[in-house]
Amino acid sequence: AMLPYFASGRVVTGFGRGGKQLGCPTANLEDATVSDLPVDFDCGVYYGFASVDGGPLNGMVMSIGWNPQFKNTRKSMEVHILRSFDDDFYGSFLKIVITGFVRPMTSFSSLDELVKAIDEDIRIAREKLTTDDLNKYAAHEFFNTSI
Ligand code: FMN
User: By the 8 A CB rule, do 29 and 11 touch?
Assistant: First the structure.
Protein backbone atom coordinates (compact mmCIF):
# COMPACT_ATOMS: atom_id res chain seq x y z
CA ALA A 1 0.00 0.00 0.00
CA MET A 2 2.92 2.32 0.74
CA LEU A 3 4.71 1.49 -2.51
CA PRO A 4 5.96 3.08 -4.66
CA TYR A 5 7.64 5.24 -2.01
CA PHE A 6 9.71 8.23 -3.16
CA ALA A 7 12.53 9.62 -1.00
CA SER A 8 15.61 11.77 -1.35
CA GLY A 9 18.52 13.01 0.72
CA ARG A 10 22.24 13.45 1.13
CA VAL A 11 24.55 10.46 1.37
CA VAL A 12 26.27 10.30 4.78
CA THR A 13 28.96 8.01 6.18
CA GLY A 14 27.80 4.76 7.77
CA PHE A 15 29.99 2.42 9.80
CA GLY A 16 32.01 1.55 6.70
CA ARG A 17 31.14 -2.16 6.95
CA GLY A 18 29.27 -2.36 3.68
CA GLY A 19 32.10 -2.48 1.22
CA LYS A 20 34.86 -3.83 3.46
CA GLN A 21 33.15 -6.54 5.51
CA LEU A 22 30.27 -7.46 3.26
CA GLY A 23 31.51 -6.76 -0.27
CA CYS A 24 28.39 -4.69 -0.80
CA PRO A 25 28.97 -0.92 -0.78
CA THR A 26 25.97 1.04 0.49
CA ALA A 27 25.05 4.71 0.42
CA ASN A 28 23.52 5.67 3.76
CA LEU A 29 20.80 8.32 3.57
CA GLU A 30 20.80 11.26 5.99
CA ASP A 31 18.72 11.14 9.20
CA ALA A 32 16.10 13.59 7.93
CA THR A 33 15.22 11.13 5.16
CA VAL A 34 14.96 8.26 7.65
CA SER A 35 12.73 10.36 9.97
CA ASP A 36 10.40 11.15 7.08
CA LEU A 37 9.49 7.47 6.65
CA PRO A 38 5.91 6.81 7.74
CA VAL A 39 5.95 5.20 11.23
CA ASP A 40 4.23 2.09 9.92
CA PHE A 41 6.64 1.58 7.00
CA ASP A 42 7.99 -1.95 7.55
CA CYS A 43 11.72 -2.43 8.09
CA GLY A 44 13.27 -4.80 5.59
CA VAL A 45 15.00 -5.25 2.28
CA TYR A 46 13.50 -3.49 -0.73
CA TYR A 47 14.33 -2.84 -4.38
CA GLY A 48 13.70 0.05 -6.74
CA PHE A 49 15.61 2.72 -8.64
CA ALA A 50 18.04 5.46 -7.65
CA SER A 51 19.55 8.56 -9.21
CA VAL A 52 22.78 10.13 -7.94
CA ASP A 53 23.10 13.92 -8.33
CA GLY A 54 20.44 14.08 -11.03
CA GLY A 55 22.12 11.34 -13.09
CA PRO A 56 20.37 8.44 -14.85
CA LEU A 57 18.26 5.92 -12.93
CA ASN A 58 19.90 2.68 -11.85
CA GLY A 59 18.41 -0.37 -10.22
CA MET A 60 19.04 -0.59 -6.47
CA VAL A 61 18.46 -2.87 -3.53
CA MET A 62 18.34 -1.41 -0.03
CA SER A 63 17.85 -2.06 3.65
CA ILE A 64 15.66 -0.11 6.04
CA GLY A 65 16.00 -0.71 9.77
CA TRP A 66 18.34 -1.22 12.67
CA ASN A 67 20.67 -3.80 11.06
CA PRO A 68 19.91 -6.48 13.70
CA GLN A 69 23.10 -8.33 12.73
CA PHE A 70 25.09 -5.44 14.18
CA LYS A 71 22.56 -4.30 16.82
CA ASN A 72 22.63 -0.71 15.54
CA THR A 73 20.77 1.72 17.78
CA ARG A 74 19.83 4.04 14.95
CA LYS A 75 17.53 3.22 12.09
CA SER A 76 19.14 3.58 8.68
CA MET A 77 18.30 3.53 4.99
CA GLU A 78 21.17 2.03 2.99
CA VAL A 79 21.13 1.87 -0.77
CA HIS A 80 23.24 -0.52 -2.84
CA ILE A 81 23.17 0.63 -6.46
CA LEU A 82 23.31 -2.24 -8.94
CA ARG A 83 26.23 -0.93 -10.92
CA SER A 84 29.78 -0.21 -9.84
CA PHE A 85 31.00 3.29 -9.15
CA ASP A 86 34.65 4.30 -9.37
CA ASP A 87 34.39 6.56 -6.33
CA ASP A 88 32.44 6.89 -3.12
CA PHE A 89 29.64 9.41 -3.36
CA TYR A 90 29.42 10.77 0.17
CA GLY A 91 27.76 14.18 0.06
CA SER A 92 25.92 13.40 -3.16
CA PHE A 93 22.18 13.92 -3.42
CA LEU A 94 20.32 10.65 -3.85
CA LYS A 95 16.77 10.28 -5.13
CA ILE A 96 15.13 6.88 -4.85
CA VAL A 97 11.85 5.18 -5.57
CA ILE A 98 11.15 1.98 -3.65
CA THR A 99 8.99 -0.30 -5.79
CA GLY A 100 9.06 -3.72 -4.11
CA PHE A 101 9.69 -5.66 -0.89
CA VAL A 102 12.09 -8.62 -0.66
CA ARG A 103 12.21 -9.78 2.98
CA PRO A 104 12.29 -8.63 6.60
CA MET A 105 15.60 -7.66 8.23
CA THR A 106 17.20 -10.61 9.97
CA SER A 107 20.07 -11.43 12.30
CA PHE A 108 21.99 -14.37 10.85
CA SER A 109 24.24 -16.73 12.80
CA SER A 110 27.30 -15.59 10.86
CA LEU A 111 28.48 -12.74 8.67
CA ASP A 112 28.89 -15.24 5.86
CA GLU A 113 25.14 -16.00 5.95
CA LEU A 114 24.34 -12.29 5.76
CA VAL A 115 26.64 -11.99 2.73
CA LYS A 116 24.81 -14.92 1.07
CA ALA A 117 21.41 -13.37 1.86
CA ILE A 118 22.50 -10.06 0.32
CA ASP A 119 23.70 -11.89 -2.82
CA GLU A 120 20.27 -13.49 -3.05
CA ASP A 121 18.56 -10.09 -2.49
CA ILE A 122 20.59 -8.68 -5.38
CA ARG A 123 19.59 -11.62 -7.60
CA ILE A 124 15.90 -11.13 -6.73
CA ALA A 125 16.07 -7.37 -7.30
CA ARG A 126 17.67 -7.85 -10.73
CA GLU A 127 14.96 -10.34 -11.60
CA LYS A 128 12.08 -8.10 -10.51
CA LEU A 129 13.28 -4.75 -11.85
CA THR A 130 12.08 -4.26 -15.42
CA THR A 131 13.08 -1.91 -18.21
CA ASP A 132 9.42 -0.84 -18.46
CA ASP A 133 9.48 0.29 -14.82
CA LEU A 134 12.87 1.96 -15.31
CA ASN A 135 11.49 3.98 -18.22
CA LYS A 136 8.28 4.77 -16.36
CA TYR A 137 10.08 6.18 -13.32
CA ALA A 138 12.78 7.91 -15.41
CA ALA A 139 9.94 9.94 -16.94
CA HIS A 140 8.32 10.62 -13.53
CA GLU A 141 8.17 14.21 -12.36
CA PHE A 142 9.99 13.28 -9.10
CA PHE A 143 13.19 12.49 -11.01
CA ASN A 144 12.80 15.47 -13.34
CA THR A 145 12.55 18.33 -10.86
CA SER A 146 15.48 19.72 -8.90
CA ILE A 147 15.64 18.94 -5.14
N1 FMN B 1 21.60 -5.89 7.95
C2 FMN B 1 21.16 -6.79 8.85
O3 FMN B 1 21.48 -6.70 10.02
N4 FMN B 1 20.32 -7.81 8.46
C5 FMN B 1 19.91 -7.97 7.18
O6 FMN B 1 19.13 -8.90 6.91
C7 FMN B 1 20.40 -7.05 6.20
N8 FMN B 1 20.07 -7.18 4.89
C9 FMN B 1 20.57 -6.29 3.98
C10 FMN B 1 20.25 -6.44 2.63
C11 FMN B 1 20.75 -5.55 1.69
C12 FMN B 1 20.39 -5.76 0.25
C13 FMN B 1 21.58 -4.48 2.10
C14 FMN B 1 22.11 -3.50 1.09
C15 FMN B 1 21.90 -4.32 3.43
C16 FMN B 1 21.41 -5.21 4.39
N17 FMN B 1 21.71 -5.08 5.74
C18 FMN B 1 21.25 -6.00 6.65
C19 FMN B 1 22.47 -3.94 6.23
C20 FMN B 1 23.94 -4.22 6.36
O21 FMN B 1 24.18 -4.81 7.60
C22 FMN B 1 24.65 -2.86 6.26
O23 FMN B 1 24.46 -2.35 4.98
C24 FMN B 1 26.12 -3.01 6.55
O25 FMN B 1 26.28 -3.28 7.91
C26 FMN B 1 26.88 -1.75 6.19
O27 FMN B 1 26.51 -0.70 7.05
P28 FMN B 1 27.36 0.64 7.08
O29 FMN B 1 27.19 1.30 5.72
O30 FMN B 1 26.76 1.44 8.19
O31 FMN B 1 28.78 0.26 7.32
Answer: yes
> What CATH number did the domain enclosing 106 receive?
2.40.30.30
| Cα 63 to averaged position of ligand 1 atoms, centre (Å) | 6
Number of domains in the chain: 1
Task: Tell whether 77 is covered by a domain.
Answer: yes
Region of residue 70 (left: phi > 0; alpha: psi -120 to 50; beta: else): alpha
Q: What is the pLDDT of residues 77-101, one digit of tens each?
A: 999 999 877 777 889 999 999 999 9
Output the pTM of the full model. Answer: 0.95
State which of 12, 22, 26, 120 you would mutate to test the pocket of ligand 1, scoring each by most atoms of that ligand within 8 A of its C-beta.
26
Across 114-133, average pLDDT: 97
Q: Is residue 143 part of a domain?
A: no
Q: In angstroms, what is the span from residue 140 Cα to ligand 1's centroid?
A: 28
Within a domain: residue 142? no
Residues with CB under 6 A from ligand 1: 14-18, 22, 24, 26, 28, 45, 61-63, 67-70, 78, 80, 105-106, 114, 117-118, 121
CA of 36: how far to CAs of 31, 33, 60, 147, in Å?
9, 5, 20, 15
